[in-house]
Amino acid sequence: MKNVLAILLAGGAGERLYPLTRDQAKPAVPFGGIYRIIDFTLSNCVNSGLRRIFCLTQYKSLELTRHLREGWDLFSGEMGEFIEVIPPMRRVHADWYLGTADAVYQNLESILIEKPSQVIVLSADQIYKMDYREMLSWHQRYDAEVTIATLQVPIPDATRFGIADIDPVSYRIHDFEEKPQHGHPVLSPFGENMVSASMGIYIFNTDVLLEALREDAADENSSHDFGHNVLPNLLHRRRVIAYDFRDLNNKRVRYWRDVGTIDSYYESNLDLVSVLPELNLYDTGWPIRTRMHQAPPAKFVFAQEGRRMGVATDSFVSPGVIVSGGRVHRSILSPGVRVNSYADVDHSILLPGANIGRYCRIRKAIIDSGVHLPEGATVGEDPERDRAAGYHVTEGGVTVVFEPHD
């Protein structure tokens, strides 16, 4: 992997994750207590031996940049390793990044300096575990010029994805059908009664990538996106191969999450506290790294009979948490959270620094970073009351509490 360059697309605003993305980019949103969303793609890179990484940022990137600087300083420049955070510098035209392809196009000079044989383009806002060495080996085995990672999904889920039409012998992709709403989508050659959906993970031979990006940049009608423009234009001119995603979790269902909405974010987090979660965070052979803040161990106090007891069951509890006479069940408690006496938190996500006052009742909610709920507050029991209080309530009934801006 020494001659492969990884490019992480980390500039997305994540509008469907609002208000969690109100003040930070989607890749920087906390996940699973101690992690950020970007940590999963970065961990895949490091565990796969990819140690030359460009991280392209744009939207509200300060928190993301700090996270990378303080938590991912494990690369040796002396050994030719790096993670470079590259904001839009408008080197080739006067605009900011106009799309995923344009973001890479604006950094052609940086790519040329590194002289990679292949470039792997990754999204920094997905949750999954994958060995990119296996995908590169497949790319080379089938003499591909472009390889697209695909995920087997049930036919009813095809309407949510771009579905690939794949030759069952050569695995060459003939076409894509974007979110097919009618008819019977083309079946996958990799699994019975399944379809193959694009994961937004691509390996390019560098010369092919550079040529494709220059052509796309010259097209005034293009939206400058890999999925909508660059790859469809290459299908019939270049050898574009499908790679079937192998999930390192080895569970019943292959785990890959976009967490593009509040509801999917909430469900993916709460899955972690299941007895047998689909995403295994305890695999020492494929560790997920993050920026660890200095904090004392979690603390549970007031072990008295009756209602006043500091206890958390079926939950993730991060360093620096204090459960002071409150009750927590099936929840995620991020670093620095405090749950005070007689409070009751159930099926909820408390983001860093959230403070739950005495006698609060929290149900099916996300409490944003730094929010201090006053004594006796009730969240998640009455959606209309939550909306009237200025909280955000999703279609799935998840209430998000956040501090309003002045």
Overall structural domain count:
2
User: Helix coverage percent of residues?
Assistant: 10-25%
- Give the CA-based shape: globular
Task: Tell me the radius of gyration.
Answer: 23 Å
What structural category characterises the helix and strand content? alpha/beta
Secondary structure blueprint with pairings:
Layout: E1 4-9, E2 30-31, E3 35-36, H1 38-47, E4 52-56, H2 62-71, E5 82-86, H3 100-105, H4 108-114, E6 118-123, E7 127-128, H5 132-141, E8 146-154, E9 162-166, E10 173-178, E11 194-205, H6 206-217, H7 226-234, E12 240-244, E13 256-257, H8 262-271, E14 299-301, E15 311-313, E16 316-317, E17 322-324, E18 327-329, E19 332-333, E20 338-339, E21 344-346, E22 349-350, E23 355-356, E24 361-363, E25 365-367, E26 372-373, E27 378-379, H9 383-388, E28 392-393, E29 399-401
Enzyme class: transferase
Subunit structure: Homotetramer.
EC number: 2.7.7.27
